[in-house]
Amino acid sequence: MSRRNTTTAHANANRLAPMHSPSRSPSASPAPHTGKHKRPQDDVSGQRTAREGQHGRKRAGRPNDSGSSDFERASQQDSRNVHNDNGENSHGGEEEDSEEEALQPRGMACGSAETSPPVDEPHGHKFLAIVAEMSRRSSKNSPQNPLKPYKKAARYIPRTIGPFENIAQAFQIGLHTDEADDGDHDEDVLGLDPDARAHAKSVYDSILTITPGLSSKIWVLGDDLEAVTSLIDFFDHNQQSARTDNVSSMKTNILDFLPDLDTEINITNLSSKTPKEQRGFHHHATGRLLCPRILRDEFDKDMEKFCRKVHNCEIDIEADDYPSFLYPDRLDEHLLRSEFLVQCFRCLFLGPSKAKGNSGSNGGRPSIAKLYNITNITPFMIAYVVVLARFALSSSPRWDEHNGNFSLVELFDNVVHLFTDEKWSTATLEWWNIQVLGTKPQSAVA
Prior knowledge:
The chain is mainly α. The protein is built from 16 helices and 2 strands. The protein has a two-stranded antiparallel ribbon. Strand 1 and strand 2 (406-407) form a beta hairpin.
């Protein structure tokens, strides 16, 4: 089995069969540091490393995720807050609710879901009917569509939890853990090591947290395998759909944000309509941004030679070789503070028209930031934009977790892990909130 199963197969018993290969399995213990990337506060020539090693992080923990957005209160809202679909596209509009009627929650607290009292039997039957509707992938475009709150929450998953999560596994582990007595886990059914199991449970709890009323209703499904599978398929389909929309938008718009290097080092930028296969190390403009910052001087000395070595596998670039686009062009110590990355973030969360800081319009569609009332930028949002930008700059024709030896999954994990440095994290997130939202981070409401 691959590291994660993101297929949206039809309902069948195999979806909830015992699994023996984790989707997001962390290492059991830290490995010796590789020295390949540096601590956030150091420049690229420093000696200290940003983490304990390429595989030395535990995925069960989620740094600085309280106060990520105001969407958590959705778990306490009634699912009647539904509105017309507008359809998301590369021009920055996000489907679902209008800006004026967006939910008003307080911030996501990944890792433990807020639970509500179980619903009574009539409401339980109503929820079963909603789940049955999920299996039909209803596309009714009416304010009364009961699937809308669940679709809205599912589309938030890649943006605030992660784009590589195994939704089926998260639900399986979460439901099994909820049903089991404390410490009474069936290892044969779970088939995961403790860290991977904890991460899957964390993802499950996060999904309950961002989904209106789900924590109080999910018990209704019981042992109904068909209903559980329908719920999983619905969430998986819609979270993949959101990621696909975001990938498309980033791929379409990213070349508009390339820095102008024509007069400085004689690099001509690409046209915004340049095909994907001509990006990456096939062109100096994108190649320089993808080049590890620690190797950029070598790149600048002979760009053609460097690109040729990459294509011939003489230079092996991996996920812990932080690309140049994560740094300001002349201030190498400020990892994750490049104007290019900020523009990519604004493009995705505020809309392409606002990527460069202007007050343009998204054509009447609410942005992701407005739809989910995002008041704080989180490490997971930044890491999400980083992996989307890395893919969009590359020559890879289609979204894939791996591009040769380069793993987008590991890049995502590496960026998130940077924020375990509390002092650096606080300063960096404050900077990001000012750049994107114009305000300092807001404290989570207890």
